[in-house]
Amino acid sequence: MKSCSVIISFLFTILSSLASAQVQPDKIVFIDTHNDILSNQMITGADLAKEQPETNFDLPKAKRGNLAAQVFSVWCDEVYGNGKAYAMANSEIDSLYALIKRNPGKIQLVKNAAQLATTLRQQKLAALIGVEGGHMIEGRMDYIDSLFYRGMRYLTLTWNNSTTWATSARDEVTKKDSLPFIGLTAYGKQIVEHLNQLGVMIDVSHVGEKTFYDVLATTKKPVIASHSCAYALNPHRRNLKDAQLLALKKNGGVVFINFYSGFLDSSYDKQHNEFLELHKKEVDSLTILFKDADLGIIHLFHMYQAETDKFRPPLSMLIKHINYIVKLIGADHVGIGSDFDGAESFPMQMNDVSDYPLIVTELKKIGYSIADIKKITSENFIRVLKANEKKM
Is 87 helix (H, G, I), strand (E, B) or coil? Predict the structure, then answer.
């Protein structure tokens, strides 16, 4: 068996060969830690092996954007509750398995760093699984084991809703006075310890501030924030404050930057809400049609693209969040977690996964070295994945 250091060196060698010595923007590869296409595809039935006009991800777009690895988010909202959320998680994983089975020459399931190295060498898209929301384990440790066996390599401890063992950012801010507890319960700490033992990365995106610090006090391994931005640039409850970012650096973790307009730009929410109010009847109809409010809004934004483009932030706003966090905690602790297919609006020019090379161009313009760009686009993910695989 190869040693850990040999595997990591092998991975970096592969990435360096893919990102050629010419270091053109369209040659540097990307690993994205958060895409929500699976839950959407369950509703629409879209064939992701073919070009899809209204998705941010499909295999042709991934190829054009030099997307080397995608962590697919397995998600459902709190409406599912116990008895349905775990089943939905497995259905979404089934849909990813089916995509892989239909396209074995293009995409491959990856469960560890060694498999990632092989898949990168073969220049197929490496597919990993992240489960977004602790409610999807329905409070059961054995469900964690089952999802791990099927490929789960990170668990987002909460979505917007709290669980019986961890509080979310939304609830800690909006329901603080009425919550039965704040942070991690004793059982929540047991879950963190179990995830450490399995080698599942703990994702602190969506969790409340108290939960965040409880996690860092409990975990023995680096954590990730799979899709978050800088609170200092936009004081949204979903973004991370400077003290949290510094604590994450001390832990050895990585924050993967979210592309969603509402997390990047503090002026977005007001214009977004005014637009939805103007088109309320259509929102209601699309929600019924797609049986999902978020997917309905995504389609509404496609229908009125000329109108909604007017309040999309510029690409420079995304770069500003990346640069702010790099300046604060270093290029070793920043990555890409787009949230594509999980929201209705992203920065101008960043329309789908084929546009990733624009990030390289913009970072080079403001003086980033190729070595640091590679850390941000792929290498930091490999490091934290491997760090979580080490046995305690």
Answer: helix
Give dist(CA 139, CA 194) in Å, integer.
Answer: 13
pLDDT in tens, 37-68: 999 999 999 999 999 999 999 999 999 999 99
Helix (H, G, I), strand (E, B) or coil at 255: strand
**DSSP 8-state code for residue 350:** -
Among the listed residues 96, 194, 182, the one whose alpha carbon sits nearest the alpha carbon of residue 137 = 194
Rounded distance between C-alpha atoms, residue 66 and residue 359, angstroms: 12
* Cα gap 302→252, rounded to integer Å: 39
Torsion, CA 356, CA 227, CA 97, CA 104, rounded to 10: 20
Query: pLDDT value at position 373?
Result: 98
pTM of the model: 0.93
Closest CA to 120 of 21, 26, 31, 4: 31
Q: Could you give the C-alpha distances from 65 to 26, 116, 271, 380, 385, in angstroms and in order?
A: 7, 18, 30, 19, 22
82: left (phi > 0), else alpha (psi -120 to 50), else beta? beta
Mean model confidence pLDDT for the chain = 93
Residues sharing a CB contact under 8 Å with residue 45, sequence separation 6 or more, in sequence order: none
Residue 70's DSSP bridge partners are 32, 127
The phi and psi torsions of 156 (rounded to 5 degrees) equal -75, 115
Q: Low-confidence residues of the chain, pLDDT below 50?
A: 1-4, 6, 18-22
CATH architecture assignment, domain 4-265+313-389: Alpha-Beta Barrel (3.20)
- Alpha-carbon distance 49 to 346, whole Å? 23
pLDDT digits (tens, 9 = 90+) for 182-230: 999 999 999 999 999 999 999 999 999 999 999 999 999 999 999 999 9
Torsion of CA 365, 366, 368, 369, to 10 degrees: 50
Residue listed under structure tokens 């996964």? 353
